[in-house]
Amino acid sequence: MTTYAFPNHFLWGAAASGPQTEGAEGKPHRSIWDSWHAAQPERFYRGIGPETVCNTLHRYKEDVALMKHIGFNSFRTSIQWSRLIDDLETGEPNAEAVRFYNDYFDEMIANGIEPMVNLYHFDMPEELQNRYGGFESKHVTDLFARFAATAFRLFGHKIKYWITFNEPIVPVEGGYLYDFHYPCKKDGKLAAQVAFNIMLAHAKAVQCYREQALTGEIGVVLNLTPSYTRNDSAEDKKAAWYADLLFNRSFLDPLVKHQFPKELCELLALHQCLPETTKEEVSLITGSHIDFLGVNYYVPRRVQARETPYTLDYFTPEFYFENYVDPNGRFNPYRDNNEIHPQAIYDIATNIRDNYGNIKWYLAEIGIAMDLQSEGPVQADGVIDDGFRIGLMEEHLVQLHRAIADGANCFGVHQWTFIDNWSWLNSFKRRYGFYRLDLETGKRQIKRNGLWFKALAQSNQFTLE
Ligand code: IFM
């Protein structure tokens, strides 16, 4: 038997987001998800949109009790810009929203659960997208900073952990390269501009936070995916280097190492994709300092050198590599055959330790997708049997434990997610929750993974034979 014990005061909980859980009722504005779903419901799995989802708006008290029941000491959600802010230009808040978020956060705190609050989880207000192009516009970076300043002023005295953006590269990929987020454009130069502007918005929000001299911490959550090669050839290694540069270092280096990779700037210039920037903006980003990093990890990236010509008429990172499926890999049969590679957790942790000053970080999302059928029905003991998920979570945590023993500065784990929630174009196709959500009744039903997590969180350790 081996026991894997974690450091004292380790954070255990789950991550979710406002647009995926709250429901759209009462918002003064629509987000791009509300409006896109209204315009093109057929793009969403079974046509289900974000209007009701988990109905957290009305059920938050019950939900906080459920968090407590499975041992959470922390929970991440996000404030919806389109809910909190009445006047998107001035940052004036909406009174109803202020009441809701205060009550929700207070309920967590009263139950010993530390709220970690994110400000942007892919949910641009529709009006800002239509009027200015969302983060295509520098003006919107100022509006984001106003929204952030309002949130800090209203809740900064009770929230200890703030996050500016969750997975900031995803709206760039989805909205400007690969067509899975609104505005569904395909334009490499615009993608680079949006990426830069998001970093600028992040830096402006951090600056507002520092100006208010609050006692909490502020960070950012990045989805980091190591790139593994098909073989050891120089060509494949170069392909992996490009993938790492474009998908990981593009955000990690400016936000943690305080520098834009020279090679990235050269590459973007080569493809006529360099964003418009000023010296002051670059210095604001590279001079900005985060207190902690969140890391989301689900699947490894496997690449090989290109063997077929690149045919797209706009730039994407795949100009420099092709994706590769490892014939010896393990795959999740319940999630598009996604590869399972727990060792990546160790590799991410050592990369942060060795190349990013061993900044304090936490595993902000890790999750195993299953569909309803594979999770199966409620068992006689009232629990849904998702044992597949537990075994995989344990394997990933063994790697995290090994990394911490080797010096990784990790302070917590949040699993994605608490209650099955709405997931963008996939809607409720894939389930991740500790609790199942019944879409008809809204009922929450515990899964075996939730009970496993309770024992883990309460004892701060787990044991394997
Ligand atoms: O649902 C998403 C979340 O919004 C961001 N990270 C990945 C999750 C699962 O796909």
Automatic annotation (TrEMBL):
Protein's GO biological process: carbohydrate catabolic process
Name recorded for this polypeptide: Beta-glucosidase
Entry similarity comment: Belongs to the glycosyl hydrolase 1 family.
Organism classification: Bacteria, Pseudomonadati, Pseudomonadota, Gammaproteobacteria, Enterobacterales
GO molecular function, one term: beta-glucosidase activity
EC number: 3.2.1.-, 3.2.1.21
InterPro entries: GH (IPR017853), Glyco_hydro_1 (IPR001360)
Native source organism of the sequence: Kluyvera georgiana ATCC 51603
GO terms for cellular component: cytosol
SUPFAM superfamilies: (Trans)glycosidases
This protein's UniProt keywords: Glycosidase, Hydrolase
Gene3D superfamilies linked: Glycosidases
